[in-house]
From TrEMBL, chain A:
The lineage of its organism: Eukaryota, Metazoa, Chordata, Craniata, Vertebrata. It is found in: Nucleus. Residues 1-61, 128-155, 298-341, 768-836 are annotated as: Disordered. This is Ribonucleases P/MRP protein subunit POP1. Residues 735-919 form the POP1 C-terminal domain. Residues 1-14, 136-155, 782-796 have a biased composition (Basic residues). It comes from Collichthys lucidus. Residues 72-153, 160-226 form the Pop1 N-terminal domain.
UniProtKB/TrEMBL annotation, chain B:
GO terms for biological process: rRNA processing; tRNA 5'-leader removal. It comes from Collichthys lucidus (Big head croaker). InterPro entries: Alba-like_dom_sf, Pop7/Rpp20. Belongs to the histone-like Alba family. This is Ribonuclease P protein subunit p20.
Length: 919, 151
């Protein structure tokens, strides 16, 4: 027997009772079988002696003379017992399949027991059940899920959808987006971030030459009702004339143009901004309603209490929770009423605030062809002649048809809309124009195939040239800005009476000639809409009117009915990241990103930091970027407050140095430092939004074209010298200013890149050859690395107390790279606690001086940076400290004024960049 | 127009101040009170052989583009358009084309006047009230560069 066979045999015999082992040869002489009945058989007596006899396999010759019955029987009983146990116990492998010879085994038997021979089936079934039970203990706890068919049944599907949007609300186009986009949960909504297909460049091209469509229904929309003067008085507290036109601007007050402002807490300007708002005054009606369309929910939650405070309103509803949708099972169409419009009324002024968020659907079309897309998709509503005029109808449109004035207005609006078709580019219109309109259901004219909407200027020739010119110069006449979308009753009527897709398709299929247009269009299909022109790029000197477009406002419930026809006109669809790119190219600050002084901006920054930090920590330490070595103090956030404070200190020093002697300055420095560290926290950093100051700054930084080739013409600017700078800084020391930086040579800035001041040598380098790519930062030393290592060791030994004094002594030489700064004194104290949360590659929390950490002085950071497809070079948007910027300008020679350095957090290479402040 | 960079955009800023300061005495304008915003010039549909010249793109690139159209593109004629400051460059391009073709190409120049629209936004919204819109004229040139017919 080979070793393997022995092993196998040992395994088989494992469970056999040792005492009853019979040799294999025993099969020949059945007499060995110890059956009690056979004992009577005479030649089986050998069996009475247990075990194999050594003598040649033969049996004892002599018969036993006698048998003691008692002992014999008990011995046999023991044997029987042993045999029975051996039989009941399974030997070897416990699988049923093991019982089958190999050639009869099939893999499928394991899950289909019917493939087994019948005799084994029961056992196999039993075993299978047992294993299933053991394996799926967790599964059992879950409710038994219905079949897919049942789950997909309409009612069940809606229930499921309602359940899924309890936490994060869905827009009406959610399903459409979810099939095509990477969705993110943001601001309490599920929003499409970017499409799953590659389309970054295609979307850019769509924005610059055709049309890009976005669903912006998540914007907060607030309606204020009240007397005009009272409203204006209240709203004027929230804004300031210094930042540009306010709510009271004449043109927007007439309702013909959309306006935009930045709101501040009541009477708090220039500190405590809340966020940007676009607004629209309802024209012509004594009750003036501006719909302040706040960009995202965060400012809204800030704004409403604020507005109440101003207007002296009291909430009718108990609290903010009132706006959370009640979790009722709605089995209706997709027009769930998520927010039962929350209303507050002021007792003193009579101003009513309505929250219309998600009551209106808002689509944005960006690009020069967006109006041709609109013109092709929407058709002005056809009136209903055949309807009996006396008969009253539950629908709103037949009622309107009876009124002569209303029909006249509609006719005029339709005329204006018709002229619009003759315009080649959206940018030719007056910015912010508003046009009210009533249109037919666009599903009726849905093309069978996707087509690309192109402008038809041929048609324009037919259009009266005079009228077109008037539209371009004057915009839409005032009365045409009126829309029935403003009226709650009409909105509700339209939403309630929408024909379902199914019904409409049935009607289409019943048309006599298949594929022909449905006519007459069912009366339910008249929708009031509001078209709001969005101005394109208005700042700067290049690419003006880039990214102009239209906003389409619809009553809720009609979202998909308009979305699909628009998509069928060959537009591209963009997500959140395209919104960001759009505003970046347009030179408009994007809401939470570029408002670091707003509560929402602060929150955004915190979220971003934790997100980036998590991502960073997920990498193994050896594969992480060591930001300490790169001299990057805060790669995941921008400590604006610290930056502004430090620059304020520096400017103060500079001032005092000019007046007093050096010794006293030192004294003063020490005291002032202490003062600042104690007193500063109450004055917060703000973003400079004063138009006049911005214009002055813009003139000082010598605006040029994007790559700095040519100077742009600016108006008269007072020359910049120390006194001018000082007087400017008197009001704006703690301010940041939003700037655009374009790289002079190659390079792609990333967010949180540092904006630095070039030294005189750097400028010499630039002067010598424009091909020079820029200076290098000497690599920094990571002092924390050894500490982390030691900490790890200490953890192993669990002898940390012995190490503590050492770390302190090490700490003293740590910030040698930077000059003495206010935070140094704090460092040793905090080091003992901070060792616990040291992360490899990042500075621990009390940061040393952010301005003087590197070899070049830091002015600020970049918030968004990318290769700009419109400028053809790397472009970055970011904030710099006003004090630092002016300080730099004063010290820079005239020919290099406005040249700064930019360095990515993951790189040691500085790149030259030109600064531009666009007003 | 398929191109984001169109002729008018970059040429206007250079040409404009002359107009705003001198040629419009009718509109009394205080530079502090109003902000001037220029709208895009009216665009017309563009054929493949239309070349709009601007001041932003490199001159050689524009010249190469025209040559490519005439030689590789198989067009018998192209139109070079220039507005305002870019008139000079348009003429330059046309002449260069002619010179490099050893006199085979012929030119036919047309001039025109393009009406441009400016928006004047008041600085102080509460006093000035209505923002103004006004039109001003700028010159344009359209040069047809073509191979003459064999006859």
């Amino acid at each position: 027997m080979s070793a393997a066979k022995v092993k196998m045999r040992g395994k088989k015999m494992r469970n056999q009772p040792v005492s009853v082992q019979y040799p294999s040869s025993s099969a020949q002489n059945g007499g060995d079988t110890p059956n009690p009945e056979r004992t009577k058989n005479p030649h089986q007596r050998g069996g009475w002696v247990r075990g194999h006899q050594k003598d040649g396999g033969g049996y004892t010759k002599e018969m036993p003379k006698h048998i003691t019955a008692g002992s014999f029987a008990s011995a046999r009983a023991a044997e029987v017992q042993a045999m029975l146990t051996a039989v009941t116990k399974t030997t070897g492998s416990c699988h049923v399949y093991g019982a089958l010879p190999k050639h009869m085994r099939r893999r499928s038997m394991s899950h289909n027991t019917k493939r087994l021979p019948r005799r084994l089936r029961d056992v196999a079934n039993r075993m299978r059940e047992k294993s299933l039970q053991a394996g799926s203990k967790k599964k059992k706890e879950q409710p038994k899920s219905k079949s897919r068919k049942a789950r997909r049944r309409h009612g069940n599907l809606l229930l499921e959808f309602n359940r899924r949007q309890r936490k994060n609300m869905w827009l009406e186009t959610h399903i459409w987006h979810a099939k095509r986009f990477h969705m993110v949960k943001k601001w309490g909504y599920c929003l499409g971030d970017r499409p799953t297909y590659k389309c970054y460049r295609a979307c850019y091209r769509a924005m610059s030459s055709h049309c890009l469509l976005q669903d912006l229904s998540y914007y907060c929309c607030i309606e204020l009702q009240g007397e005009e003067d009272k409203l204006l008085a209240c709203l004027s507290l929230l804004t300031s004339k210094e930042t540009g036109p306010t709510f009271a601007a004449a043109l927007s007050l007439s309702g013909r143009r959309q306006g935009s402002v930045v709101l501040y807490r009541a009477g708090q300007y220039p500190s405590q901004p809340l966020g940007p708002v676009t607004f629209l005054w309802r024209p012509l009606v004594p009750v003036v309603i501006p719909a302040g369309v706040v960009l995202t929910p965060e400012p809204e939650s800030e704004k409403t209490p604020e507005a109440q405070q101003v207007t002296g309103t009291k909430r009718k509803h108990s609290g903010k929770d009132a706006s959370v949708p009640p979790a009722k099972k709605i089995l209706g169409d997709g027009t769930r009423s998520p927010t039962t419009a929350v209303t507050w009324k002021s007792s003193s002024t009579g101003i009513v605030i309505n929250d219309l968020t998600l009551e209106l659907v808002r689509y944005r079309l960006i690009g020069p062809q967006s109006h041709s897309v609109l013109a092709e998709t929407l058709e002005a509503a056809t009136d209903c002649h055949e309807i009996d005029k006396s008969q009253s109808s539950p629908l709103w449109w037949p009622e309107h048809c009876k009124d002569e004035n209303k029909m006249n207005l509609h006719q005029q609006q339709a005329d204006v809309y018709h002229i619009l078709k003759g315009i080649y580019s959206t940018g030719e219109l007056p910015p912010g124009t508003v046009l009210g309109l009533t249109v037919d259901d666009p599903r009726v004219t849905l093309p069978t195939k996707k087509v690309k909407a192109l402008p038809c200027v041929k048609q324009a020739q037919e259009v009266d040239e005079e009228k077109r010119k008037e539209l371009m110069l004057q915009g839409v006449p005032e009365h045409c800005c009126q829309s029935y979308l403003w009226e709650q009753s009409v909105r509700d009527n339209v939403t309630d009476n929408k024909i379902s897709e199914q019904q409409l398709n049935r009607m289409k299929s019943e048309v006599l000639v298949p594929g022909s247009r449905l006519s007459p269009i069912p009366l339910q299909g008249r929708v009031p809409i509001l078209l709001v022109h969005q101005p394109g790029k208005q700042v700067g000197h290049e690419m003006s009117s880039w990214g102009a477009g239209w906003d389409l406002l619809l009553p809720k419930g009609w979202g998909m009915a308009f979305w699909v026809p628009l998509v069928y006109r060959g537009v591209r669809i963009g997500g959140l990241n395209m919104t960001l790119k759009h505003s970046q190219n347009k030179g408009v600050s994007h809401f939470p990103h570029d408002y670091p002084d707003c509560p929402a901006g602060v929150r955004f920054q915190e979220e971003q930091e934790s997100e980036l930090l998590d991502k960073f920590k997920r990498r193994p330490p050896a594969k992480r970027t060591n930001y300490i070595k790169h001299g990057c103090l805060a790669p995941f956030r921008c400590p604006w407050q610290q930056l502004a404070e430090e620059w304020e200190l520096i400017t103060r020093e500079a001032e005092s140095q000019t007046t007093t002697e050096a010794d006293t300055v030192m004294e003063e420095k020490m005291t002032s430092r202490r003062d600042i560290t104690v007193t500063k926290p109450q004055s917060h950093v703000t973003v400079l939004r004063n138009r006049k100051s911005l214009r002055l700054l813009s003139g000082w930084c010598k605006p040029t074209t994007s790559k700095g080739q040519r100077r742009c013409r600016v108006g008269e600017v007072p020359p910049l010298d120390r006194s001018a700078a000082t007087s400017f800084l008197a009001t704006h020391v703690m301010s940041l200013v939003w700037v655009r930086l374009s790289l002079l040579s190659k390079g792609k800035p990333e967010f949180h890149a540092m904006v630095c001041v070039p030294t005189a040598e750097d400028l010499q380098l630039l002067k010598k050859g424009s091909s020079s790519t820029g200076p290098q930062e000497p690599p920094h030393k990571d002092h924390f690395k050894s500490r982390i290592k030691r900490k790890k060791k200490g953890n192993k030994k669990t002898s940390t107390p012995a190490l503590l004094p050492k770390t302190d002594s090490n700490e003293s030489d740590l910030p040698s790279t930077s000059e003495p700064n206010p935070t140094t004194s704090k460092d040793p104290k905090s080091s003992s606690q901070s060792t616990s949360d040291l992360i490899f590659g990042l500075w621990p929390d009390p940061l040393p001086s952010v301005t003087s950490h590197c070899s070049r002085v830091t002015l600020g950071w970049v918030t968004q940076g990318d290769f700009s497809l419109s400028a053809g070079c790397g472009e970055a948007l970011g904030f710099v400290s006003v004090a630092g910027l002016l300080n730099t300008f004063v010290n820079q020679p005239m020919e290099h004024r406005g040249t700064l350095l930019l360095r990515n957090p993951t790189s040691l290479h500085y790149r030259f960049a030109k600064i531009n402040i666009e007003v | 127009m398929t191109e984001p960079r169109n002729p008018g955009m970059s040429s206007i800023p250079q040409a404009a101040p002359v107009h705003t300061d001198s040629t419009s005495p009718a509109v009394e304008m205080d530079p502090v009170e109003y902000t001037l915003r220029k709208r895009l010039p009216r665009k017309l549909p563009k054929r493949r052989n239309d070349v709009y010249v601007n001041m932003k793109t490199d001159f050689r690139a524009q010249l190469a583009r025209c040559q490519k159209l005439l030689e590789g593109g198989g067009h018998r004629e192209i139109c070079v358009h220039g507005l305002g400051l870019a008139i000079n460059r348009a003429i330059n391009i046309a002449l260069q084309l002619q010179a490099s073709s050893q006199g085979v190409l012929q030119l036919a120049a047309n001039t025109s006047t393009v009406e441009l629209v400016d928006d004047l936004e008041p600085e102080d919204p509460d006093e000035a009230g209505e923002p103004m819109t006004r039109t001003r004229n700028n010159s344009a040139i359209h040069i047809k560069v073509f191979y003459p017919d064999p006859q």
